[in-house]
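Researcher: Please predict.
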Amino acid sequence: MTYPRTLIFSIHPKWADEIFAGRKVFELRRRPPALKAPTQTLIYETAPRFRMRAICKFGPVISSSKSEVWKIAGNGSRISHEEYKNYFAGTETAHAIVIREVNLIGPWALQYLRDNADFVPPQGWCYASEKLLSCLGVT
């Protein structure tokens, strides 16, 4: 069976809650995947929750100067301008990923995903394995 290239993003619970509430509509990353169109994405919540919690669309990626990306995505990223400046310090380019169509799933606990799909949470993001997608019932 062939699966689409589904992404997995590790997101801290504070920011995941903002995404689930519809307030955070941009994910900021220093090194994003190359997304020209919305791409199916799983959201894995990091410590202390350790669980797969949502499926959504990430993309496209908006890449530009730090000042331009702040104008476009600052409010929808849910961080302060000071946090933004600190996060992108030392870089010329900032990247904001559009988030849409968020749907809660599971939750699927990390131990279950390890036992049944050999899942290892990514440090930032990665592509989902066929085994993980099958375990979650995601097509």
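Model: The beta strands are 7-11, 26-29, 39-45, 51-65, 93-109, 125-127.
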